[in-house]
Design brief:
Order of helices and strands: HHHHH
Radius of gyration: 19 Å
Largest sheet: none
Strand content: under 5%
Structural class: mainly alpha
Number of helices: 5
Shape: elongated
Helix content: over 70%
Length: 155
Amino acid sequence: MSSILDMTAKEAAMVYEEKIAWAGLPVSLLTLIGYVAVLLTRASSTPMPDTPYVDAMLGSIGVGVIVMIVISIIAGITARREGHVRDVRDKQIGARAEFTARGVLVIGALAALILAMLEADTFWIAQAIFLGFALSALLEGITKVALYRRGMAEW
């Protein structure tokens, strides 16, 4: 097994990709919680399918994207100063995390497809897609952090 693959986070400084993964976890979680809180507050006075959700959904997505862009820029500047270059380990961790999270995204898409086939309200279809993306992002971040912290065996 390669020494690069055996390296744990204790043996190396936190790299750019790990910083982004750590930052992405609370951002993903808070935007999801914020969206659900707004949605439930609005649903207290109207039936759930009639609840206005588009602005809250777009707002939570927009806030999440903007916050992650700012964090990525700051982490990128720090990584450049530290001289870190993305290596094989970073690429393999990214690929493993994306592969792991893809299942959740597919489940969300299949749920939306089934809802569309059943001619469910567009509200529920949108929620299934949004939840699939949000949970996929969380799982990808958790997987990256775990792989950086514990190390990764070869495929």
